[in-house]
Amino acid sequence: MTAYEYWTDWDTTVRIIAPTEDLDGDGKKDGKITLTPPSAGSQRLYVRRSLDAAQNRSDRAQYLFYANSPAIPDKAGDLNGDGNADLYGVRTDGELWLYPGQGNGRVGTATAAGNTDFNGAGITHRGDWTGDGYEDLIAALPGDGGRTLHVFPNNGVGFACTSRDEQADGQSQSCLTGARELQALDEANNHWAAADQILAIGDIDGPLDTDGDGTIDVPGFPDLLVKEGNLLWLYFGSDSFYLDASRAPVLIGEGLWSSYDLAAPGDRTGNGHVDLIARHKTSGELRLYEGTGNSGEGLGTGPASVAIGSGWTRTNRPLFTAVPDANGDAKTDVWATGGDAQLYFYPNISGSGVAVGTSGWNNFQALN
């Protein structure tokens, strides 16, 4: 035996390694390789015990192994695993693009981030919805019967997977699982079919002690806000793809929510609970709703809200999104498109913003 050929299900390039030493004590030389899968889960390695001196190839052997999730999940807002908050954008043609954050408020060169048509969809990302340690995309896709909710698993570098073994531009995206629909066990709990915005806000209820013995029984799961006209609903995530599996949704706000666009800043106030930012579409007032409890207290009621900005009308700043930290100062930041087609960065949600994208940002229908 003069060489081995091998490849994987995430990288189909055939590589060759020569046996150099006896690793198992059988008196024969073996080959050793190191693999780094792009994501957690089941993986496959394919090997041909070849080539002999005459260049004859043997039959292919297949080895199945499992890669564990990262010991520490990616930070909030980080889609490609580099430690910086990133940006998803849906262009006017319905294509999803990833803009990698550079850690200073600026974004790098965009890459196509999905094969699904996101035209007319609402998108959001905050938290790991599939248990692999990566932040996933949630999308409310339009349809004849109303919107449907779907989880598009992150492949670890920001590509929102639609199907297993998916390819883009002729290259494998190492998608180990495909998109899954989020549903309701009780159809009366489906408030997203007619929703005008969804928002993955983070983990509101946190890890839970379900039996009251003082020990955490259930890990924290990301939660979802659904704005249905003037109503604001909170759904509690679980290990199920049914959003009412652990608890029924809670109506946390009613009134004039149809006049607002929402963003998820994380825990801006530092009290241990995630908060909510709301922008009045026409007056341009930006308000912060401080979360105060594990059932969404404070997020949908007016008394605890404070004005934190003005001039944020849809005309002036058509699209905006918040992240817990995009420049390394541990403070909430905002990206927003301008009426002048530029992208602006607002460190600590303050000042008049810094232009970090100089043109073409009027060609987007969604930003998160």
Automatic annotation (TrEMBL):
SUPFAM superfamilies: Integrin alpha N-terminal domain
Keyword Signal: yes
Top-rank taxon: Bacteria
Entry keyword annotation includes Signal: yes
Pfam families tied to this protein: FG-GAP_3
Keywords for the protein's UniProt record, in alphabetical order: Signal
PANTHER family: PROPROTEIN CONVERTASE P (PTHR44103:SF1)
Protein name: Repeat domain-containing protein
